[in-house]
Amino acid sequence: MSFPLLTLLGAVPLVGALVVMLTPRATGRVTGLFISLLTTALALVVVGLAAGGSDLSEQFTWIPAFGAHWAMNADGISLTMVLLTVLLTPFVLIASWNVGHADAEDGWGPRAFSALVLVMESFALFCFMATDVLVFYIFFEATLIPMYFLIGGFGGAGRRRAAIKFLLFGLGGGLILLAGVVGVYAISAGNGQPTMLLGELAGMPMGTGTERVLFVLFFIAFALKAPMVPFHTWLPDAAESGTPGTSALLVGVLDKIGTFGMIRFCLELFPGASQWAAPVVLILALISMIYGALAAIGETDILRLIAFTSVSHFGFIVIGIFSFTTVSMTGATFYMFNHAFSTGVLFLAAHFLIQRRGSQKIADYGGVQKLAPVLAGVFLLGGLSSLALPGMSSFVSEFMVIAGSFSQNIWIGGISTLGMVLAATYILLMYQRTMTGPVTEDVKEAFGEERSNDLTGRERWAVAPLLLIIFVFGFFPKPMLDLIEPAVTTTMSQVGVSDPSLTMEGSN
């Protein structure tokens, strides 16, 4: 396609962030929301054109000496990530309408928050669409900047320490990835054709040892981003100290760059090493899944609990990726999409809860459902989606991951089912401790005796569309699966794996 529509899609929120900062403070939030909705509309056009068979790929020479190109493309996997980004962002802005002080002298007002969210959206979109390794790396690193300021500039006590920890882990992952990128370039140059294009690098001959080393470098960088145990410790701190809206973007969008990178770069660039490392990766994923769930059960802080649930969920996603079946990898990609909305609802509902009570401690709540039934209902629905209740979109993706992994390795599939049981435990315990039981005096004072402090109209508009997405794709997942599966099939072909053939006992 001659017109660079994908570049425009990524550039709109970036330019929009500048526009927001130039507008008066009173209109900054409205302008930011408008820009995010415009980006969403443009993304839907892109998805429609791509689904209709249009070639949206872009490729322009950038640094000839490196073989670097400004290269963008969008297959089913990329488009899924684009959709979750553009659908989640505007509702985070609506939910975070009052984050920061409108008259803040230090600059950390609602206008700055909106601008940073738009910058984060732009960089994430470019990450998901980039098909040049160097371009991907640049935006992989660039996402750290707006998120650092979102964590450190807004939120509660300890936010600056959490922001620095996030930045250090992110920079560490970036440096490791840079080493991998340099290694990939060196191999292409050694073969007489310096290039950074993913399509040209995939299938390029390299020694077995070299391939495995480069795989490890890329994988560690992505595991830090995801995050997986033992690289996860920055996430609970960031969730605890940042605003819930920031945490929703962090877990829903930013962390997905890690698991997306595993599919797009680890598998496609290093197919042999991916198969070689798969047993160890699957064990690490199981550890992440179980550890995250157990840590969530024992957590006393609402936001840290939700963060630990995400550590567990990322374990599920990685299991789906490295089980190397069409069903599991399609399920893992769909899981990334669904997780953004289920966890987003949980974080935003927690935000509304904490706003009213002024505490993140689970022990400070009780009987909230009697005074704020709508808020309690939203919290419950977000939790039920997180534990993959049938009828919700997360059930489809989680079932596909477990079914696909079961057909490849019965022990991996069997242990994965334990994660579903633990998920029900930590979600229902959190709901029981905060929403049910007798109403405490502090809760009564915070929420009012006549349901006067339940969700406002704006807050309902922030979460209702997310819940609608969860239910729509819970009952009608086919459009998303049809979008994802062809790209997964192509990736599996590049890796050189196929679905296991099952034979009935007694058959010839």
How would you concisely characterize the structure shown here?
The chain has 508 residues and is mostly helical.
Report on the architecture of this protein.
By secondary structure, the chain is mainly α. It has a domain at 270-498. Helix content is 74%, strand content 2%. A two-stranded antiparallel sheet has the order 1-2. Strand 1 (58-63) and strand 2 form a beta hairpin. Helix 15 (326-357) packs across helix 18 and helix 17 packs parallel to helix 21 (457-475). The longest helix is centred in the middle third of the chain and has 32 residues, at 159-190. The radius of gyration is 22 Å and the shape is globular. Residues 502-508 have low confidence and may be disordered.
Q: What are the defining features of this structure?
A:
single chain, disordered C terminus, 508 residues, 2 strands, two-stranded antiparallel sheet, mainly alpha
Name the helix and strand elements from N-terminus to C-terminus, one letter apiece: HHEEHHHHHHHHHHHHHHHHHHHH
The portion of residues forming beta strands comes to: under 5%
How many helical elements? 22
Radius of gyration: 22 Å
Main sheet attributes: strand count, strand direction, barrel closure: 2 strands, antiparallel
Topology:
Blueprint: H1 5-22, H2 25-51, E1 58-63, E2 68-72, H3 76-95, H4 110-129, H5 133-142, H6 144-153, H7 159-190, H8 198-201, H9 208-225, H10 234-241, H11 244-254, H12 256-269, H13 271-297, H14 302-322, H15 326-357, H16 368-371, H17 373-386, H18 393-408, H19 410-435, H20 441-447, H21 457-475, H22 478-495
Antiparallel strand pairs: 1-2
